[in-house]
Structure formats: C-alpha cells, structure tokens
Amino acid sequence: MTATEWIPEFPAAITVCDADGTIIAMNEASARVFAGDGGKDLVGRNALDCHPTAARERLAELLRTGRVNAYTIEKQGRRKLIYQAPWREGGELRGFVELSLELPDELPHFVRT
Asked: What per-residue confidence (pLDDT) applies to 51?
C-alpha cells in the first residue's frame, strides 16, 4: 500500500486547497458532504468563493498565517469536528487541509498524564 491509498475511502471528509484557496483534492466522504454544492466538481474552484463572508475571511487568514482553525458544528442533528490546518512542503505553506469528522452523540473525554 502507498502512503495515500487509504485517503479515498477514509470515513471523514478530507478537502485539500492550495495556497490560493483552490480546491485541489477531495476524498469520497468530502464529495458526499458537498454533493449539493457540486461534489467532486468543486475541484478546481476556489474554496473562498464557497463560503459566506465571515468564513471566507477566516480561510483567507489561514492561508496568510498558516494557523490552525478548529471548531464543532451541528447540522441536520449531527455534530461534527471541523479541523482546518496548513500543509507545507519544505517548510513552505502550500495551502490547507480541512477534515470534517462526524462525532458520536456520546464522546468520551480522557485526561492522560
């Protein structure tokens, strides 16, 4: 198995954008999540154009600063963790990856020392 063969069928949505915000890759879960917006046809479109103003500004900031943005949402009765983080090559910011993971109703929390 190559280092990326697991990505297409991974059960969380993975969306990858380049440094300009253009969507360059989506796995199958991401295509399903965004099916109403075009699914895989979003590849090649700018993610900034797919968001309302406040979210667009946050994404633009991520592309400028390389910071992580993480939050939870509830949509159609399902809770999700959204984790947007930079990806780099040779230390240079190349864009960001968004992971969208569905959270179970009961989510244990452990404090480890």
From this structure: 86
